Amino acid sequence: MIAPPRKIPGLVPPGLILAGGLSRRMGSNKAMVTLGDAPLLSHVIRRITPQVSDVTINAAITDKGSWAEGFGLPLLPDTLNGHAGPLAGVLAGMRHFRDSEAAGGHFLTAPADCPFFPDDLVARLCEHLSDDAIIIAASSGQLHPVFALWPVALADDLEDWLKNDTNRRIRAFLARHVTIGVAFPPLETARGSLDPFFNINTPDELALARSHLETMET
Known about the structure:
Elements (H helix, E strand, L loop, with lengths): L14 E4 L15 E2 L2 E2 H9 L6 E4 L27 H14 L6 E6 L9 H6 L7 E6 L2 E10 L3 H8 L7 H5 L4 E5 L3 E3 L2 E3 L8 H15 L1
Parallel strand pairs: 1-4, 1-5, 6-8
Antiparallel strand pairs: 2-3, 5-7, 6-7, 9-10
Helix pairs in contact: 2-4
């Protein structure tokens, strides 16, 4: 569904980096693989920090702590047992930011494996804020639900939805609610066009990201 945009001037939402994936195709924790001069997660932190009011990392915490503690940011574990995918991280964010009275009732999610997302991502998404709508980034006709402004008011509905173990597909949850897609153009580099929401899941995709990054830094 598409709702008419309602711009809310001056709103700067908090941000949540989703870093709870299992990294099966990478063979190691992809958030910690090296891209250029730093771990992949560092690139995401650098890009998101100027765009939001504060940054929290969604990552598992055990008796031995968390691999993400070294980044010096607050950590937010899933509130559900097991691995329920990105929606579990979204639910944790809804609960956390609702309790902290997030400005405007929305927060941004971004995944830990996408280092090239737009510098104006949050500003452009915020232009379309509309009550309980989920505002989602898009490119080349494709929605990217992990790049979205989520209303904290949907927490109870999402928690009830996830109680059914068959409900793990993020697009199925989106179909229950008003969503607004905001299109972004390709990123142009010396190696050609690149989807700004390109995500790194495999060693080959990491190699491609490294080659594009090299041209951006020269």
